[in-house]
Design goal:
Elements (H helix, E strand, L loop, with lengths): L1 H25 L29 E4 L7 E6 L5 E6 L7 E6 L8 E6 L5 E6 L4 E3 L11 E2 L6 E8 L3 E12 L25 E5 L2 E2 L20 E3 L2 E16 L2 E9 L5 E10 L2
Antiparallel strand pairs: 1-2, 2-3, 4-5, 5-6, 6-16, 7-9, 8-16, 9-15, 10-14, 10-16, 11-12, 11-15, 13-14
């Protein structure tokens, strides 16, 4: 009986000793803290996707090269895209005095890409019809259908290139005839929507490649000018078509064909490289 009792007590003593030793093992030594348990927290991806910043210009576009802009998002991403080359050159001009039957004109060169050309002011034109005014300063507007203006320039050598119009046109706010949708049109290429014709040395300019160039694409409304009750857009170096000039006297004739209030400031020829 005593033997059984001592066996039971021995078992209980062993269990107590094991529990005590276990408690000591898990306890941190005096003056230290217990090491925390390591846990991994998973983050669910956002269902809304990344939040992008506004586009920022990194390299501005010029008439000679495309530019670049970029944007970033809140997840560390980045995107880049190109900015189209500018349609407008930055001209420097040198005056050329009239010779023969021609008028004064300017030799021009772009200070950025160094392309060259010539420019003659519409104010130098001989008018067939009456300009009644009401156009932006420096511009000539033909007031009636069939009226024309002609400028003559005398150049020392033959040149080929492209001819451009610089000037303004009035906004047509009524109905669908607003400035953003108006396009170049000529007698030669669009009989049913002819607005004007441009001739160089009596040869009408082929505008077939440029009929879809909208004036509103050149400058926005905010860049316009109001004369009296009419607001004009600005047209800067808007391409019309290819041209060949001869050595000696050349004539450029602009004729209003339909009710199209286009005011011209310069006729510009940019020479082929």
């Amino acid at each position: 009986m005593k033997t059984k009792l001592f066996s039971v007590l021995a078992v209980f003593a062993a269990m107590a000793l094991t529990a005590c030793n276990g408690a000591k093992t898990s306890s941190a030594p005096a003056g230290t803290s217990a090491k925390p348990t390591s846990q991994t927290t998973s983050r669910a991806p956002s269902s809304k996707g990344p939040v992008w910043s506004d586009w920022k210009v990194v390299t501005p576009a010029t008439c000679a090269a495309e530019g670049k802009e970029e944007r970033t998002n809140d997840q560390g991403g980045k995107e880049e895209r190109s900015i189209p080359k500018l349609k407008q050159h930055t001209w420097t001009a040198t005056a050329v005095a009239a010779s023969g039957e021609g008028v004064d004109y300017e030799n021009i060169e772009c200070s950025v890409c160094h392309v060259k050309g010539l420019r003659v002011a519409a104010a130098k034109a001989t008018l067939d019809g009456t300009d009644k005014g009401g156009a932006p300063e420096g511009c000539i507007k033909l007031s009636s259908n069939g009226n024309s203006m002609t400028v003559a320039i005398n150049i020392p050598e033959a040149k080929t290139g492209k001819i451009y119009l610089t000037g303004a046109m009035d906004y047509w706010y009524d109905g669908n005839n607003n400035n953003e949708t108006r396009s170049f049109a000529s007698v030669k290429n669009s009989e049913n929507s002819a607005n004007f014709k441009l001739e160089v040395n009596e040869a009408e300019i082929d505008m077939s490649a440029n009929l879809n160039v909208a004036f509103g694409d050149i400058f926005p409304k905010e860049a316009g000018e109001t004369v009296g009750s009419v607001t004009y857009s600005k047209i800067g170096d808007a391409e019309v078509g290819a041209v060949s000039l001869k050595a000696g006297l050349n004539t450029i004739k602009f004729t209003r064909v339909d009710s199209y209030n286009l005011a011209v400031k310069y006729f510009t020829v940019v020479f082929a490289a």
